[in-house]
Specification:
Structural class: mainly alpha
Helix content: 40-55%
Oligomer: single chain
Number of helices: 4
Strand content: under 5%
Mean pLDDT: 86
Largest sheet: 2 strands, antiparallel
Number of strands: 2
Order of helices and strands: HHHHEE
């Protein structure tokens, strides 16, 4: 087997191990970020600087798994005023003196019998 061919495969294997090792090393930070952990920055810094030790890596992993999620942003101190609502007074009910059917207050003639209405 050619040494150049074997060397290329060794480089691919080394690069693959570096990528997988980096992904495993930062796994606690990825978990904390995906869970929107409240203490994400602290977990990331612990993972970054002490993750090389097994205790630091396990500590950041456990912290990432048990940390609470961020609370939603608080409501403003003074709530926004409610939008104005359109309220209309109920229209007065009028009745035709001829047929007794209800008519609108602005009608000049009854829509049922045609009788002229007084204003």
């Amino acid at each position: 087997m050619d040494h150049a061919y074997l060397g290329a495969w060794m480089m691919i294997a080394i690069i693959f191990m570096i990528v997988v090792g980096t992904a495993i090393y930062f796994l606690p930070s990825v978990i904390a970020y995906s869970r929107s952990a409240r203490n994400f920055l602290a977990i990331f810094l612990l993972n970054l600087f002490l993750g090389w030790s097994l205790v630091g890596w396990l500590g950041s992993l456990i912290w990432a798994l048990v940390d609470d999620k961020k609370e939603p942003a608080p409501a403003p101190f003074f709530p926004a005023p409610a939008p104005p609502t359109l309220t209309s007074a109920p229209a007065p009910i009028a009745y035709c003196p001829q047929c007794g059917q209800s008519v609108g207050p602005a009608d000049q003639f009854c829509s049922h019998c045609g009788h002229p209405l007084q204003q």
